[in-house]
Backbone:
């Protein structure tokens, strides 16, 4: 088990930049940044795992079984990593045949060499080496992030506007026939021969769109630059909860009155509330598989939270975990998350595979950590840029929940709105 030593921090923002510059030398690392949002009172503002002592990387098939063996050998360690969307092929009898330009594995977790918990006044460093030397090395790093290479990115749409609108209309017909009730459909934006500085682009993205479940994740030549606003699952003691997002309206920061109208629209919209309640019911059903009977409840329904580009409707569902259930059981019972699939889950995942043209991979999967003892917190990987540094392929995906009442043109425009911050930082 790693030793933990704390050091005072004079300036939180400067030290965070220094940490980013310091960690960029590692082939594997994971930064999780709360961006000072108060979601369930997080224990830290920034959590950084650097270097890999041992790891597991595997495709769907027997991934959860392999992870259990890995965890059994490392229960007293911090773990960081991801579950990719296509683990659906293990939780259900499904397949994935669409193109994948990024190449993240379906599952990856690692035991870090060094873990840093950063708060406003101090940083706690967990490591087996001399923590003071690590602290001093960070302090020697630059306090600004400069672009090491000039970006060269030409973003293209994988699905043209008319085709996307046509897909939405076809999905509405599926809903009308009773195949499903609600479905989350996405489109890819991509760039070939792309050159970026991932650290610089991540910093720009999170400055433009500071969201509470941001992540910078590097796995050798593959990167995820995430400004996610959504939590998938969190466990504290025997309590587990999820905070699905369904319902989006565009902000108007330049006009307070219009911005308030946009917020009020979510509160009053039957369409948005119907989407939200369907995913809440799905999450309740998923949590009931691993929670004590009668303990699953809706703590907050239709709550509207404001982010830099959008207002979002977020609900909170919680339950008390059954005895003997661990974090792997929690993920296996609930993955992929309902906010990124729809209902009923298996059928909509079949339709997603049919109508989308890109393998989701890490998109709409999850990145997070597990503490010694088994408490954990995982985000939903959305509002994220993916980059394969070796192949120079860049990709991001956006979309939304479709019901029969969805307007195909407005759904297309919403997908562009969600893409706007990522488009801007790549200009």
Residues:
């Amino acid at each position: 088990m790693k030793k933990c030593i704390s050091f005072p921090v004079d300036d939180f923002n400067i030290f965070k930049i220094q940490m980013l510059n310091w960690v960029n030398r590692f082939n594997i690392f994971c930064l999780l940044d709360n961006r000072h949002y108060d979601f369930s009172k997080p224990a830290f503002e920034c959590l950084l795992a650097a270097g890999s002592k041992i790891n597991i990387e595997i495709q769907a098939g027997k991934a959860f079984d392999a992870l259990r063996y890995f965890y059994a050998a490392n229960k007293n360690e911090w773990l960081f990593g991801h579950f990719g969307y296509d683990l659906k092929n293990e939780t259900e009898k499904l397949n994935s045949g669409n193109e994948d330009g990024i190449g993240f594995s379906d599952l990856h977790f690692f035991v870090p060499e060094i873990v840093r918990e950063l708060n406003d006044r101090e940083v706690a460093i967990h490591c087996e080496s001399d923590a003071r030397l690590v602290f001093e090395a960070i302090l020697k790093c630059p306090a600004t992030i400069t672009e090491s290479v000039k970006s060269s990115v030409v973003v293209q749409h994988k699905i043209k506007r008319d085709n996307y609108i046509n897909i939405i209309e076809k999905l509405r017909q599926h809903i009308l026939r009773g195949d499903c009730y609600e479905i989350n459909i996405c489109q890819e934006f991509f760039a070939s021969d792309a050159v970026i500085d991932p650290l610089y682009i991540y910093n720009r993205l999170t400055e433009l769109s500071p969201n509470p479940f941001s992540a910078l994740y590097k796995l050798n030549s593959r990167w995820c630059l995430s400004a996610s606003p959504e939590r998938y699952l969190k466990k504290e003691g025997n309590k587990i909860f999820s905070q699905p997002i369904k319902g989006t309206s565009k902000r108007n920061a330049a006009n307070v009155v219009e911005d308030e109208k946009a917020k009020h629209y979510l509160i009053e919209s039957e369409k948005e509330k119907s989407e939200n309640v369907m995913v809440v019911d799905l999450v309740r059903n998923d949590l009931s598989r691993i929670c004590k009977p009668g303990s699953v409840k809706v703590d907050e329904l239709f709550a509207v939270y404001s982010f830099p580009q959008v207002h979002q409707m977020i609900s909170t569902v919680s339950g008390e975990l059954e005895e003997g259930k661990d974090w792997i059981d929690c993920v296996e019972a609930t993955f992929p998350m309902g906010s990124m699939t729809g209902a009923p889950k298996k059928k909509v995942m079949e339709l997603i595979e049919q109508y989308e043209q890109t393998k989701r991979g890490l998109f709409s999967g999850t990145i997070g950590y597990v503490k010694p003892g088994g408490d954990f917190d995982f985000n939903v990987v959305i509002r994220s840029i993916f980059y394969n540094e070796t192949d120079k392929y860049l990709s991001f995906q956006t979309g939304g929940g479709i019901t029969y009442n969805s307007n195909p043109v407005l759904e297309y425009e919403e997908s562009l709105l969600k893409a706007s911050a990522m488009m801007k930082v790549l200009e």
